[in-house]
Tryptophan--tRNA ligase (Pelagerythrobacter marinus), 338 residues
Amino acid sequence: MRIVSGIQPTGNLHLGNYLGAIRNWVRMQDELAEGGECLFFLADLHAISMPHEPAALHRATLEMVAALVACGIDPDRSVLFNQAQVPAHAELQWLLNGTARMGWLNRMTQFKDKSRKNREGASAALFTYPVLQAADVLLYQTTHVPVGEDQKQHLELARDVAQKFNNDFASEDAPVFTLPEPITPPEAARIMSLRDGSRKMSKSDPSDMARINLTDDADTIVKKIKKAKTDPEPLPSEAAGLAERPEAQNLVAIYGALSGETVDAVLARFGGQGFGAFKPALAELMVEAIAPITARFRSLLEDREALDAILARGAARARERAAPTLEAAYRALGLVRG
């Protein structure tokens, strides 16, 4: 079993990134410790499909490596790398562009969402983004890809591309590509803003009080939880009582995600109590969970040499695994290589 998953490098990582995505990567790594392999990559090639500031992208890539390692990704047990150091990603994308069809790409909802009304002004990279995603997974003979609802369409396209390529250029008993299967990771916590329970926690929120950053110290976390928006009602004893109370629902969900409890279990303990009692308990739990990550994250950020080494080692391992598939694709297409 080989699992491949990627994440775009973004700066200012927060609690939502950790509980929403990174923690599931750690779980998959641990579950496959004896029976498979995980490849996790930073999608820096994908990042340039949208306007970006080069220095910020470089910094965010290093921050993401530090965050992943701090959160529990082990570069010795998983292959951790960035796309830009593995040219086979871009090479295979070009080879697959001959197989992917315009009609398939025109149906991709992500392009429609990101290009919005300025379709003519969108980059070609944004339009062919799904083909690079297909290359990302097909390159490694990936057996399984963790997908949420928003990524199912992209995996389906990758399977379509792989199937058509195999049909057109390979024999039935010797396909070039493995068709990856989707796996649904454990339900990720959907972490919302501390200032508006109807909006996701985001690095782009103008208020730093709206999020818990992975760089926040204990005093800052306590302060942010104390000032988090709530309502005047006490906590209910059952989850149904949180309906129409988005801020209360968010804080209870965060507590449950950090403690490993269901919402009902959290409410069984705190139901009937006001936020004056619940918030200190949440802050204490959060500091306990985040403090080791924060300390490791900050330590890694100060050691640029160590971060570069992690990426270099991971890229070397990824290039080794990618080479046979890339060569097979070149041969299948009749391309002459020295």
Observations:
- The mean pLDDT is 92.
- The beta strands are 2-7, 37-42, 79-82, 144-146, 181-183.
- Residues 65 and 307 are 7 Å apart (CA to CA).
- The first helix runs from residue 15 to 31.
